[in-house]
Prior knowledge:
4 copies of one chain form a homotetramer.
Chain A: E1 2-8, E2 13-19, E3 23-27, H1 34-43, E4 46-51, H2 63-70, E5 73-77, E6 87-89, E7 94-97, E8 100-106, E9 115-121, E10 128-134, E11 137-138, E12 141-142, H3 152-167, E13 175-178, E14 196-197, H4 198-204, H5 213-221, H6 231-240, E15 252-254, H7 256-263, E16 268-272, H8 276-281, E17 288-289, H9 296-303, E18 309-313, H10 317-329, E19 335-339, H11 342-348, E20 358-359, H12 361-369, E21 374-377, H13 381-386, E22 392-394, H14 400-403, E23 412-416, H15 421-432, E24 437-441, H16 444-450
Parallel strand pairs in A: 3-4, 4-5, 5-6, 10-13, 15-19, 16-17, 16-18, 18-19, 20-24, 21-22, 21-23, 23-24
Antiparallel strand pairs in A: 1-2, 2-3, 7-8, 8-9, 9-10, 11-12, 13-14
Amino acid sequence: xxxxxxxxxxxxxxxxxxxxxxxxxxxxxxxxxxxxxxxxxxxxxxxxxxxxxxxxxxxxxxxxxxxxxxxxxxxxxxxxxxxxxxxxxxxxxxxxxxxxxxxxxxxxxxxxxxxxxxxxxxxxxxxxxxxxxxxxxxxxxxxxxxxxxxxxxxxxxxxxxxxxxxxxxxxxxxxxxxxxxxxxxxxxxxxxxxxxxxxxxxxxxxxxxxxxxxxxxxxxxxxxxxxxxxxxxxxxxxxxxxxxxxxxxxxxxxxxxxxxxxxxxxxxxxxxxxxxxxxxxxxxxxxxxxxxxxxxxxxxxxxxxxxxxxxxxxxxxxxxxxxxxxxxxxxxxxxxxxxxxxxxxxxxxxxxxxxxxxxxxxxxxxxxxxxxxxxxxxxxxxxxxxxxxxxxxxxxxxxxxxxxxxxxxxxxxxxxxxxxxxxxxxxxxxxxxxxxxxxxxxxxxxxxxxxxxxx
Amino acid sequence: xxxxxxxxxxxxxxxxxxxxxxxxxxxxxxxxxxxxxxxxxxxxxxxxxxxxxxxxxxxxxxxxxxxxxxxxxxxxxxxxxxxxxxxxxxxxxxxxxxxxxxxxxxxxxxxxxxxxxxxxxxxxxxxxxxxxxxxxxxxxxxxxxxxxxxxxxxxxxxxxxxxxxxxxxxxxxxxxxxxxxxxxxxxxxxxxxxxxxxxxxxxxxxxxxxxxxxxxxxxxxxxxxxxxxxxxxxxxxxxxxxxxxxxxxxxxxxxxxxxxxxxxxxxxxxxxxxxxxxxxxxxxxxxxxxxxxxxxxxxxxxxxxxxxxxxxxxxxxxxxxxxxxxxxxxxxxxxxxxxxxxxxxxxxxxxxxxxxxxxxxxxxxxxxxxxxxxxxxxxxxxxxxxxxxxxxxxxxxxxxxxxxxxxxxxxxxxxxxxxxxxxxxxxxxxxxxxxxxxxxxxxxxxxxxxxxxxx
Amino acid sequence: xxxxxxxxxxxxxxxxxxxxxxxxxxxxxxxxxxxxxxxxxxxxxxxxxxxxxxxxxxxxxxxxxxxxxxxxxxxxxxxxxxxxxxxxxxxxxxxxxxxxxxxxxxxxxxxxxxxxxxxxxxxxxxxxxxxxxxxxxxxxxxxxxxxxxxxxxxxxxxxxxxxxxxxxxxxxxxxxxxxxxxxxxxxxxxxxxxxxxxxxxxxxxxxxxxxxxxxxxxxxxxxxxxxxxxxxxxxxxxxxxxxxxxxxxxxxxxxxxxxxxxxxxxxxxxxxxxxxxxxxxxxxxxxxxxxxxxxxxxxxxxxxxxxxxxxxxxxxxxxxxxxxxxxxxxxxxxxxxxxxxxxxxxxxxxxxxxxxxxxxxxxxxxxxxxxxxxxxxxxxxxxxxxxxxxxxxxxxxxxxxxxxxxxxxxxxxxxxxxxxxxxxxxxxxxxxxxxxxxxxxxxxxxxxxxxxxxx
Amino acid sequence: xxxxxxxxxxxxxxxxxxxxxxxxxxxxxxxxxxxxxxxxxxxxxxxxxxxxxxxxxxxxxxxxxxxxxxxxxxxxxxxxxxxxxxxxxxxxxxxxxxxxxxxxxxxxxxxxxxxxxxxxxxxxxxxxxxxxxxxxxxxxxxxxxxxxxxxxxxxxxxxxxxxxxxxxxxxxxxxxxxxxxxxxxxxxxxxxxxxxxxxxxxxxxxxxxxxxxxxxxxxxxxxxxxxxxxxxxxxxxxxxxxxxxxxxxxxxxxxxxxxxxxxxxxxxxxxxxxxxxxxxxxxxxxxxxxxxxxxxxxxxxxxxxxxxxxxxxxxxxxxxxxxxxxxxxxxxxxxxxxxxxxxxxxxxxxxxxxxxxxxxxxxxxxxxxxxxxxxxxxxxxxxxxxxxxxxxxxxxxxxxxxxxxxxxxxxxxxxxxxxxxxxxxxxxxxxxxxxxxxxxxxxxxxxxxxxxxxx
Lengths: 455, 455, 455, 455
């Protein structure tokens, strides 16, 4: 029995190959499946099983892509009512793979159909060796149960029961392999470490340490971080069965003239994925900005309107492929093209440009102190609550999509996040709505604090 | 705290990156260090620490290569008396890395200077989270203490004490990250799984389950598998500090004529690394054969005479690079060149060729039954003891280097291993010593058994 | 104007990117189009034109794959009557691409619809700068006009006229970029050099130096090398429009048991693509053998029956992908799978194996002299005519498919080609037809000659 | 005979492999030699000859790196007085390589020791087939003879004689393979096309069409473009023999704090290689800016002070490797490190930042018209002479290093080039000298012209 973890930054998603001597299972595969094919080939095993722990809310799964490429069978929760061909598994189902036995424990909580696979290594012994815990148990956290409107308490209650009855009863030495790590919004407090053990989690996981069920339900249903918009879309895609990646068109390079024409079409959406420094330097009026090097897929899933043809502005052509993959991960399948030659060719074509001044902490402080600008902190309310500058107001970056109405388009707004990337998203939103004076505090709250202007 | 494992097949070696937010340590690095540099870059961390658990006997370590490439500090056991610049660590030493603390426990046993690093993740709690166990504790096994002539019992005794006093006292949930996996000869019973936990090992590891110290010592010092020749060479190289990989010459292509001339030089060694099928089909008289796709580095370290200029015969030029890396892993730093154009150009040059007939189980059985050939089983004595064909004699492949004298060069020998690769090594050795009729049983013992000729 | 050549070994095919500042044309693209997409991206240009010189007989063209990936327009000869969407071009057609003008000259000869594109670099001057000569004019040769039964003389006559009227009248300094180089069977005497000039070809090309038309027609219609079977298939595929590469299934690994079952199916074909040394060492009874490292695609196109599901035996899994691509090049679109674990796992499964002894020149000579074996020279008749061993008989390797009937299955045949690869193909054919004693002369005629047994 | 061209953008350098059946020569290799090793391996030939046409002024050559990696012999001009081991060649020298003969013709002109290699393909005929023309004859141009102070006329005269006596006397059909293409400053009017023929150049090359020697000398010694600073350094490096690439340290990641400290050291130089948009958005005060995606190596060689430890600011870590290679190409061997985490981490560390506003054509025009800013055109004098905005003054970007003294640090300067990249270099220079208000006209002259503000 060999376990190999595959981690996808951005969505902080972990998937696994669990291999015997000749065959293997892939658990919760990502949509770009080449990595599993290559790894299996290197190990000298064939992919014969694909195991889904639940209908992922935060990304589109690669189960069908992988099944198509390998002929492997897909196993998914009975309660998921999946529309694609699969073996439906439920409490007590057992899936043998050579010397390995996967036993299903249903763990409704994060989602109603969630389950975990408990693996036993029969070559060595009868007791559980590894838990593939999906979004039920994370390193340092548990799956948030608040994603289904009106069902949060029920699901939290169920999660408590399942954790205490089925998970915490596993041996201390049982390894824990979750579907997410730090950075995912499927929980709120995941640790950086990507695997753990039952014993260690029982000892240090804040949620497992809440003895009282009511307290647990309260804790898990209050003050949860906001959930991105695509969380309500991806589950449905995963249930129906996503389009195969190879059926999706690759974005084509478009010259500035063509690009300009296409971007004016209502069915299109203009998305600049360059660094926030680049976007600040010069960009196309009307563009959404989300820095590809940041938390791109989640941020894109969160704020971009679905069902649009996406037009990309990139720093280098290869970033068009990268951005496209990331967008596909969160359910945007229509990436039409990218600006050929980038902003250099756009500028040289004499087409409209604009900028977002990046201000230093000192410049910002002076302007704000003198009343020349308003400091808007676009971090999450949790971050704001933890510490903030007295002179600032808080509107989380994603909320600006609607809450821009609370601001006055004739004033100068300086946007601040932790480093600069989310403020740049916010800047792109404000400018889209006709705000003329929008700046970004370079280095964000961190720099502001170092300069002594915030606690 | 993030842990990433790097597994090198062949020597079945596991090394690790243990990363904080900005920096990381590499534990027991392999000699080809590019993988660590790339991984660290992808994680966005700098390599600042290099931790050696002991003086590896079975491979040349990459600590100096990595130090040269990164400027990181090397930490090695005080008792190793290492000749290169390093921080010497011993029982109780602590090495901090951001939120991570590595504590040293000395665990003499496999080697006198062996130690383990116990990691604590201070971001989460005070109890040990991971054990980097070097060659002290493996998944399903412990490090063999019999490599030092005359000291086996002492070391086994020490190993028992250290395991029981320092390792088995760690919490059940503590993860175990060893330096080797199944396939390594640093133990005899390693499981395929590449990581484990203290609790699971306490429950199922045969060595940890031996309660009685004397029984433990007896078990660990008797009936151990043979140790390859290079096990006596690599420790010394690692203590002195290996040559930097970038200082070693890359093998050059040599035309058939030049190759023929060079291979006759006493300082040279002719090594054919193609598949056993290819070698059987046609090869150069006088060549050693070790299949690159098999257990190449260990087999090469085991039987090849050191201090020679190695001349390679390969299937494709890129295999010359691959074989060279594998040879470097086990301490052969002088790979002079490879046959340009391969055996096709050699044959066309009208230079001498020979072959090893690959016989089927039926052909073999007929020949042996009728007295036309002798079946030599070249598997290890452990495999032979487990099951063998009645009509066969056992001389392990590596022993044939000296024990060929027990055979008669005028008889027809059919060599059998498990599949065909070790029999091919054995065939190359016999032919080197003037045996004229040497065949290989295709599919080896496995095929012989399936055909009903062996139990 | 920038010209980049792409050379595909095996079919010795040259294609071209001809680029302006922002856009480019691809001339006669291969079926694996990623190389053009990458090159265009690196040059910073978009692929907007795809130019076909004729309906290639020797390989399946990538025009539709490339059109699908880029949206570029395909240009093809009017006389080709192509069934896919295209711009039909004929004598005098002009295709502008920025500062470049492609002028069409029809040059029926190699095929009735053949044409050339004469490029003018308007940025520099009005006279032709480059000729994209398809299969009309090669470096050192011209396109063979004998591929259409009964039309050879007409086409040769037409070729003469077109060369003299339209090609040799171009300026001496005009560059020549043909669709093939040395190794292609679309001519018989191509030079190694991959590009040339009109003046140089007029001076040294044997065909252009034949002044008399009748002599030209005679020379080009007599003593031409045999044409591979697929030459009669590929043109039709190219006219109809080949299947898109992305629609073709990738071969899957098949365990020995499954492989054994599938290979017995009448619709399947067993193809071993390992080196001739490996095949000789051990192979599966009933397999076709064609060495992937040799002239694989042409040889495969020549002898394999079409419309079969191909099952591969490979040395390494990545060779399955490589062989599949090569097979797709010559019109075999159904590659079903490959033997997982290769011959090592096959042998260990105890499944049937056989071998082809590779004999040295001395062994061969002794056997043949003493009447113990018959030496069959499987080289082409042209090679045989040039020089051969007295004791040998000539049956070209591809003719053995039918002419095996001229041989006696109870005799020992030693097959000889130039080096060993074609003899191995021949061996696989004879064994398929029940010949029991078939050997391969290692190093072939070259070795036999060096040993003094042949002139 | 096979010829393969290798083109390096940036320095627009062409090198060549000229191969026979088993061996090959590399002509004028670049310093990153892996490409030649790989290509030779793919062709199945060994690199045995390295031919230098002259002491390159614009880049450091890879002859010694390649000799070290292959053992090949270096051939260089006798008149070059090279200090490394080589075969000195001069007029009439002949270098045989299988069927290929290279004949040396001395062609002093671009440099005193310049020579060309005339290749004959003896397999086909006796007349020259290809000219490897170094920097003597380009496509559309000839090598500039004005690089040696006080010797321009003599060298131009010599160039005229050599072209007319030795080059233009070659057959029209002889191919021309020069060492540079469009973009190089070793000439002034090179065409985009990368190879040509003698006949075509005689017909259309402006320099070859000047019949009168005096007129030629005048034309080639007047109004030549400025020569970059490193042109006076590289020849000497190439003569002495450059350091081996493998001996140079790879740049290491440096955290913001360390970076800040190091950049203040007098021996250091701070170089930002991100896009001009990014630099404009936010950068470190005191940085040089040269956009890696532009004409980076030549611009770096031109303006950066030599003998400094270079500290890089990059968009992505892999750009540090790319920039380092480019810097090595033009003789900067000391690249010490790069800013780990890029400007995002710098900003978050609260370290000083600044920006360059990118203005649109309209904004610029308004400001300049109203006297609020001065428009400085930093293009070359040739570009300025061809067309410029009335309201602008011309100081070529590289001259600003000294000519900044002509400007007034208290005024607002808007810098304009053709697209934005050179203006950004200029902006970095002005800011280094204390100019407080420096902007960049986005899209440069091209945009200004499209907006109707310039002719």
